[in-house]
Amino acid sequence: MTYFKYFGTILTNQISIREEIKMRFKSGNTCYHSVQNILSSSLLSKNIKSKVRRKIILPFVLYECETWSLTLREERRLRVFENRVLRRIFGRRRDEVTGEWSKLHNEELNDLYCSPNIVRVIKSRRMKWAGHVARICDRRGVHRALVRENWGKETSWETQA
């Protein structure tokens, strides 16, 4: 497979966006590891840590996510990444009966962090982007691709210019 980077996006000779998502995960992990001490600090509130996640980490992962068509495997990987960051923010929980520390389960994370999960954010951004494309001029290529118009000779770029 051949690929190259163009304006921060991986372009390949295949239809899959797997390489693009891998690159986004690498960028997100790099960013996550650079702010890991901030997220686990007991001096900062969970509100500030959540803002660090939303304003610093997520933009690296979600760059150009409006054009992604996610598979279930990629959705699962996104949720795993998000849960790892949220576990760092909220820490461990102490069992009231035994007094032992354990990591938070996914359901407990969802209860603690009431904002939409990362997959819902991506789907919301895709809907906003689709609405934007639907409102632009119908002669532009991105609009025609969205509504799947014929790109044959009778509608080529030369005849419309």
Lateral strand order in the biggest sheet: 1-2
Low-confidence stretches: 155-159
Q: How far is the first residue's CA from the last residue's CA?
A: 35 Å
Query: How large, in whole angstroms, is the Cα Rg?
Result: 21 Å
Helical content stands at 55-70%
Morphology call: elongated
Counting DSSP E segments of at least 2 residues, the number of strands comes to 4
Contiguous helical run count? 8
Mean pLDDT: 79
| Structural classification | mainly alpha
- Please write the string of helix (H) and strand (E) elements: EEHHHHEEHHHH
Largest sheet: 2 strands, antiparallel
Strand content: 5-15%
Overall tally of domains: 1
Structure, described:
This protein has 161 residues and is mostly helical. The radius of gyration is 21 Å and the shape is elongated. The longest helix has 19 residues, at 72-90. A hairpin with a 6-residue loop joins strand 3 (92-94) and strand 4 (101-103). It has one domain (17-160). Residues 155-159 have low confidence and may be disordered. The chain is built from 8 helices and 4 strands, in the order ββααααββαααα. The strands form 2 sheets. The protein has a two-stranded antiparallel sheet with strand order 1-2. A two-stranded antiparallel sheet has the order 3-4.
